[in-house]
Automatic annotation (TrEMBL):
Family classification: Belongs to the leucine-binding protein family.
Organism: Pseudooceanicola batsensis (strain ATCC BAA-863 / DSM 15984 / KCTC 12145 / HTCC2597) (Oceanicola batsensis)
PANTHER family: ALIPHATIC AMIDASE EXPRESSION-REGULATING PROTEIN, PTHR47628
Annotated ranges, domain Leucine-binding protein: 28-318
InterPro entries per the UniProt record, alphabetical: Leu-bd (IPR028081), Peripla_BP_I (IPR028082)
CDD domains associated with the record: PBP1_NHase
Keywords: Signal
UniProt name for this protein: Putative regulatory protein
Length: 371
């Protein structure tokens, strides 16, 4: 592990006894990522991508003229330690200078009440939209940017008449499905099933039997990480691909490998980034990624790339705008130019990266269609 990384979690007693003292020679970024539970499958790619950003920043001038150091904290919904307590203690002790978070929206909502503009907070993955907390910057895609165009493309190419909506029981799936229902009204199609599942549901068979009986010919799958994997494995065993098309906004390359090639027929994913995209920005990012981590590095995907982007967004925002972050939020963020595997610059809400609909092809995505 790089010397620029401190592994967490540590016991809170270690913080208080001086195990993680404030420092002036390093700019410490709390990298909040899931390390266990349903979303834990995303962790290695997120860590590896953020490390590339740290290496690049430290070859230049770091952040605020200080070398960058990551403190990795388990931000899984199922984590044993309350994330609010850990983050609050770190901020109060002066042990972190900023947060870059790639975790579910339920965690972001809890943390937004704790951070309170004391340090900048960059939230990197796709999310449900509507974040207005000052000092918090959500740079990922919203349902309007991803889901609407993807539904329109599938309606055009597959003409489904009955949709099902299945997701985990928290804010992002519920908000996304609310948007989907509203959007589908213009196509005069029926939503015949809507279900929200707890994290870590041990068996998906009952849910899939209900899906089969519903008569749906397309299903929007808004399940997280391993839950999506378990769903797709059972979906394949039951051969539901013969009559149902799957669409996901959160299925990525790690998930494909875990599902198995035989369980992925007629599965589509929508994202602004895929590891296989043939763009100049992605080719350059992949070269730097594998130069640091080698040929057997964790798989590149949208959620991992987002942590790379989040680190560079943080650095560029502080360099260009100083303390302006304290009074701004996602909706009125200043223009920021920064390194990305997607594109070179954007301000949340304007000049957004391109979005693609891709088809699962064995254990990779292919047939990328810009939306």
């Amino acid at each position: 592990m790089s010397a620029n990384v401190i592994a967490m979690p540590l016991e809170l007693a270690d913080f208080r006894s001086g195990g993680l003292r404030p420092r002036t020679d390093a700019f410490r970024v709390a990298l909040l990522i899931p390390m266990c539970g349903s979303a834990g499958i995303w962790g290695p790619s997120c860590i590896s991508s953020a490390q590339v950003a740290v290496e690049e920043l430290n070859r230049a001038n770091g952040i605020d003229g200080r070398p960058v150091q990551l403190i990795m904290i388990d931000a899984a919904f199922e984590a044993a330690e309350p994330i609010e307590e850990i983050v609050n203690d770190l901020i109060e002790l002066g042990a972190i200078d900023a947060i870059v978070g790639m975790h579910i929206s339920a965690i972001r909502q809890r943390l937004s009440k704790v951070v309170r503009q004391r340090v900048p907070y960059i939230y990197t993955p796709l999310y449900e939209g509507g974040e207005t907390t000052a000092g918090l910057f959500a740079i990922g895609e919203t349902p309007q940017e991803q889901l609407g165009p993807a539904i329109a493309r599938l309606q055009k190419t597959h003409s489904p008449r009955k949709w099902a909506l299945i997701g985990n029981d928290y804010v992002w799936p519920r908000a996304s499905h609310s948007y989907a229902k509203s959007y589908l009204k213009s196509y005069d199609v029926d939503v015949v099933m809507e279900r929200y599942l707890p994290f870590g549901l041990p068996c998906m068979k009952t849910v899939l039997e209900e899906l089969d009986a519903s008569g749906a010919d397309t299903v929007l799958v808004s399940l997280v990480g391993q839950d999506a994997v378990n769903f797709n494995r059972m979906f394949g065993r039951m051969e539901l691909h013969r009559k149902i098309v799957r669409l996901s906004c959160a299925m990525e390359e790690n998930g494909l490998m875990a599902c198995g090639a035989g369980n992925l027929e007629r599965l589509f994913a929508v994202s602004s980034y895929f590891g296989g995209l043939a763009t100049e920005c992605n080719a350059a990012f992949k070269e730097r990624y594998h130069a640091l981590h080698g040929d057997f590095a964790p798989t590149l995907n949208a959620l991992g790339q987002s942590t790379y982007e989040g680190m560079h967004y943080l650095a560029a925002m502080l360099l260009d705008h100083g303390d302006l972050w304290r009074t701004c939020s996602t909706g009125n963020a200043p223009a920021v130019r920064y390194a990305s595997g997607r594109r070179t610059s954007h301000r949340p809400g304007a000049e957004r990266p391109s979005v693609y609909l891709a088809r699962a092809d064995g254990l990779r995505f292919s047939d990328f269609k810009p939306l």
